[in-house]
User: Fold this.
Amino acid sequence: MFYSIELRKYFQFESVGISSGENFMFLFLEDVLNLVWNKILEEVSKKISPQYYERFIDTLKLETLNSEKCTIIAPSATIKTHVERKYQSIIENAILEACGDKIPVEILIETKAASPLQSFLEKSFDQKDFQFNPDYTFETFIVGDCNRLAYTAAKECVRKPAEINPLYLFGSVGVGKTHLLHAIGSELIKKDPWKTVCYVDISSFMNEFRFALQSRELIESFKIKYQSYNCLLVDDIQLLSTNAEKTQDEFFALFNFLFERKRQIVIASDRPSSELTIHERLKSRFVTGVQADIQYPNKEIRKGIVTSHSKIMDLGLSEDILDFLADQIEEDTRLLLGALNDIYLYKKSYSLLFLNLDKVKEIVKNRLYRKKNVEFSHDRIIESVAKEFNLNAAEIMGKSRKKELIIPRHICFYLLHNVFNVNKSQVGRLFQTQHTTVIHGLRKTEELLSNNKEIRFLVERISSKYKLQ
Assistant:
């Protein structure tokens, strides 16, 4: 291939070892032009680290260089996007140094047939494909004692990225973990539009990684993608299990890469990191920052959530309706928002301006916590479990962590919640323990029931004794 370049005007010949002549157009071979390209690369290498030079710049090829523009070929959309964001101005300045004039740079993707896997990954790498939920902001997050630490830490991640690193948010479904992840991401981008921020649930991460294992090229693209982010927001980390050995290794390597470079990492889970079924070396990384427990909101916070969203939706709900919704839906705040959506659609369907409390009760009845038709005593359930284990109820209700008390206590959690529909928050208050402890106890009891016939028969005996037929 030949290239047309007006030499004296656009190149400082001495810098590339070419003697100058009269002003005229030269045709010369590719190896001569490569001298110019090598000079440009030499200038670029002075501005960025060897690691990034090798990963990004060294993969580029010079296509054309003339008085109008410099065309560079990138091997993939991933490389192209990253170079444009991070290094294009550096390349243009290097051309100015090497050639004596400012020439605009255009970066193109190498034209070759992409496999379905490559297309999948390339598409997933474009941040434009992911938009943070505009409803999930710090302004719309209702703050109370149940979530104040998590909220404050999340704000700090935006104010001083990597000062708290990692931030580990944990709590049950619907308490606001995903809301805070989106708020962090959108605020970081608002603060600096050039920031690259990734929100990913761990299931999507695992699926991408499995796809990438198909070839060395895809693995490299996968690594480039995740290592290029300034902030990584990971949801539902509890779904990463010890069975996924390679995925854990990859996530561990990614975590270390970002952490060592002071990139912000925020992780969300439904349980404390100590209860995750992952390798200890990964758990140990999660405890180096701040762990913030988000509890279920109390009635005051729930009412704040309902009030805020009902105003946004222009529902015009009265105080008695707001109190009713906040009082009846105690656990997952998504149920609260779902109830508001039901009300909104009902009003819209019948062109109503206002609703009374009775009508609202009818609209949301399927979302409400429904009690059994007869009452039972919590104490009687606990006493029955205690009797089965030759203990007294006070021991089970106490704070002792003795092994012989843990299983009976967890069985009480299970009976109250799964059999008699007492919500987790009420169980926690009854035993004066944290919500996450109740969740852990329920999970452990479910494991016991699947593996231990005696425990299963015990639970069935007590259930049949008190449960309504």
Observations:
- The chain has four domains: 3-109, 148-293, 305-367, 378-466.
- Confidence is low (pLDDT under 50) at residues 1-29, 369-375.
- Residues 371 and 421 are 7 Å apart (CA to CA).
- Strands lie at 3-6, 25-28, 61-65, 70-74, 105-109, 167-170, 197-201, 231-235, 264-269, 290-293.
